[in-house]
Amino acid sequence: MMKFATLAVRAGQNPNPYNGAVTIPVSLSSTYAYDSFGVMRDNFEYARTDNPSRRALETTLAALENAKYATSFASGQAASTSVLNLLESGDEVVTTSDIYGGTYRLFHDVFKKYGVRFTTAENNTAESIAAKLSERTAIVWAETPSNPLLALLDIAELAGRIENFRNQNGKKPLLAIDNTFSTPALQNPLELGADVVMHSCTKYIGGHSDVVGGAVIVNDETLWEKIRFYQNAAGAVPSPMDCFLLQRGIKTLPLRMKKHGENAYAIANFLRGRQNVEHVFFPGFDDFPGHKIVAKQMRGLPGMVSFCIRGGVREVSQFFGKLQIVILAESLGGTESLICHPATMTHASFPESEQKRAGITQNLIRVSLGIEDTDDLIDDFKNALD
Length: 386
Ligand SMILES: *Cc1c(COP(=O)(O)O)cnc(C)c1O
Description:
Blueprint: H1 4-10, H2 52-64, E1 69-73, H3 76-84, E2 92-95, H4 101-110, E3 117-120, H5 126-130, E4 137-143, H6 155-163, E5 174-178, H7 183-186, E6 196-200, E7 214-218, H8 221-234, H9 240-250, H10 253-272, E8 277-281, H11 292-297, E9 304-309, H12 313-322, E10 327-328, E11 338-340, H13 352-358, E12 364-368, H14 374-385
Parallel strand pairs: 2-3, 2-4, 4-5, 5-6, 10-11
Antiparallel strand pairs: 1-7, 6-7, 8-9, 9-12, 11-12
Helix pairs in contact: 2-9, 10-14, 12-14
Bound molecules: pyridoxal-5'-phosphate.
């Protein structure tokens, strides 16, 4: 069994048998010729259903999560939609209180009208999520670390609590983990008992802020066939060029995650000592709630730090205006450090009351640390805060 860094550059990436090309080609063809009537070559027929660029990417993604099946999508949202397509009207999804704003919007502004119910747990602990399970619960949806407060969830504990639960259809609710913030380099939820892993590949997996994509990864063949069926029926497929860019990004994922984590650790510690910083959220701190979960289920520190600046929107704005290296922008996981104001940017789709409940305050700032020189980043934060 190859180790992670080797899988990142070799899984699904053998030289082309016809011409020896070492890099997976961008297969732009929209259709594939039959060898003869009724006989397809390598099962390729029409590019929406499958194509060589996508198949190579999916082989790599499955290998990185140590899983059987991966399906790649046009975006993280398309990936989440395909999981929600498994639901029937009347089903319930139990979620945690701080999740990506777009996921919240997809749940409440799109799927609710089809009769799906969404129930929010008090916080991000396995106990509080399990307490919300009902006879209608078909899916439990969680992020760890969560967006934007980086709350940790013990996946194995939650999986254990769901294990013996049966809903009115006699089924165990599916445990779906949005693994975007951790990436498979740091955490493999399927190995911890989750049923579904979802990724926004736009973030760390692509890693260069130049492609939008998503993925759903599972071990169960029936589940995989259903997701594949919905994708082919609905059409939210990634382009071959997207697949190529994601495949290229993945090769350096282990290297990048190490540096993202180092920079996050350095910046979190720096921020903690500043008097115009009120609070720092970083799972790497010994006194961060659930800190032990990092060592239990992750192989390193995440590259994200959130903090509350002393003051309100005016101070946030002044601080943003002084940054020279760190870029004010949505998204995360790129080589360049990005900073944002969740209340008005990434989590603007949360109603005010939900923002309050989740702890998304007006002075909360989220940072995605890039791979720049650590000292340059510290200087940039220092100058802006001063
Ligand atoms: C960005 C993001 C998504 C949505 O993915 P897109 O690729 O933007 O559609 C979902 N979950 C998390 C945690 C994200 O950060």
